[in-house]
Design goal:
Strand order of the largest sheet: 2-8-7-6-5-3-4
Family: Belongs to the class-II pyridoxal-phosphate-dependent aminotransferase family. Histidinol-phosphate aminotransferase subfamily.
CATH class of the largest domain: Alpha Beta
CATH superfamily of the largest domain: Type I PLP-dependent aspartate aminotransferase-like (Major domain)
Order of helices and strands: HEHEHEHEHEHEEEHHHEEHEEEH
Protein name: Histidinol-phosphate aminotransferase
CATH topology of the largest domain: Aspartate Aminotransferase, domain 2
Pfam family, one: Aminotran_1_2
Helix content: 25-40%
Structural class: alpha/beta
Strand content: 15-25%
Shape: globular
EC number: 2.6.1.9
Keywords: Amino-acid biosynthesis, Aminotransferase, Histidine biosynthesis, Pyridoxal phosphate, Transferase
């Protein structure tokens, strides 16, 4: 049996299989932040029954964390599933999805899977996003859905909240703001979901909450949009263990806040170190730094030092992304970089 043409031509999202002691390639968080929560599962936790499909306990914790109503929340198997659901829900075949260029690779992959069109609006020099030019692209191309990753992955660049609101106002169609890394920035538009009926905010526990392994994300929007997405959401899409651990982690948000504060401090240290080495690093509002280097085979050289970062190719050849890890991990990265600069 042959796959459909859009899948046949698809280049999959590839995860790096290389293993290093200092793993700074995937923007993961601290392995210790919420590890004790697993012990709370206890003997009263049963695996033979389906999850509560309303996920009411998790939604209550999310509601308390972000300050919205339960009716404004949809939960999913990572923010990736929620982005997938949004495209299924709002974009028909051959309609356009507009995003940034460069940005998270999965946006264009979803577009290809669902036989929709995809366009990335190019950023300015040094990957700064010009809101007025982006709005011009929206008005010129009339995308069915616009996706803004803020802070942007892989560049770390930030769009000011006022500019995001200008973008939302520029169209009647859906604007999705992917705030996977926003706990490390300060320009969230979550509090605007009731003010703009075309706004969807997608967030995750994978980054600042350091819980990538439980694959838990959530979508925030006005009640009407949430009800529409819920029509497409499959039942029991989040498993009981993930829902339980996410609920408990959100109840201990102070741990995350302290952790994120530490990451911001380390981010500035690593940024300064790279600049001191005359490496072209770009300002970031996320838990990673994006930088340019002409050092030949830099990724391979760092792997030999037991340090793994993310290498990019194509238009982003000679660009790299390094996750901000623990103080020791960051020091190992800086130490290794100094050998080759």
């Amino acid at each position: 049996m042959k796959e459909k043409q859009s899948v046949k031509e698809l280049q999959p999202y590839v995860v790096n299989p290389i293993v290093c002691s200092v793993k700074l390639d995937a923007n993961e968080g601290s392995k210790d932040l919420f590890k004790d929560l697993v012990k709370q599962l206890g003997e009263e936790f049963y695996l033979n029954v389906y999850p509560d499909d309303s996920y009411i306990d998790l939604k209550k914790s999310i509601s308390n964390y972000v300050g919205c109503e339960i009716s404004n929340i949809c939960v999913g198997n990572g923010s990736s599933e929620l982005l997938d659901l949004c495209i299924k829900t709002f974009v028909d075949r051959d309609e356009l999805i507009l995003s940034l260029d460069p940005s998270f690779a999965m946006y264009s992959i979803y577009a290809k899977i669902f036989d929709t069109k995809y366009m990335g609006a190019e950023s300015e020099d040094d990957f700064v996003i010009n809101a007025d030019k982006f709005i011009h692209a929206i008005k010129e191309n009339n995308p069915k859905v616009t996706i803004i990753c803020n802070p942007n992955n892989p560049t770390g660049s930030m769009i000011k909240k006022d500019d995001v609101i200008k973008i939302i106002k520029s169209t009647d169609n859906i604007v999705i703001v992917d705030e996977a890394y926003m706990e490390f920035g300060d320009e969230s538009v979550v509090e605007e979901i009731e003010n703009y009926k075309n706004l969807i905010v997608v967030k995750t526990l994978s980054k600042a909450f350091s819980m990538a392994g439980i694959r838990t994300g959530y979508l925030l929007a006005c009640e009407e949009l949430v009800k529409t997405v819920e029509k497409v959401r499959p039942p029991y899409n989040l498993n009981s263990i993930s829902a339980f651990l996410a609920t408990k982690a959100l109840e201990e948000k102070d741990k995350m806040i302290a952790y994120a504060k530490g990451i911001k401090k380390e981010r500035e240290k690593v940024y300064k170190s790279l600049k001191d080495m005359n490496v072209k690093a770009f300002p970031s509002g996320a838990n990673f730094l994006f930088f340019h280097s002409d050092i030949k085979n830099l990724e391979e050289k760092l792997v030999k030092e037991d340090v793994l970062i993310r290498k990019f190719g194509g238009k982003l050849d000679n660009h790299y992304r390094v996750t901000i890890g623990s103080e020791d991990e960051n020091n190992e990265f800086i130490k290794a970089m100094k050998k080759f600069v």
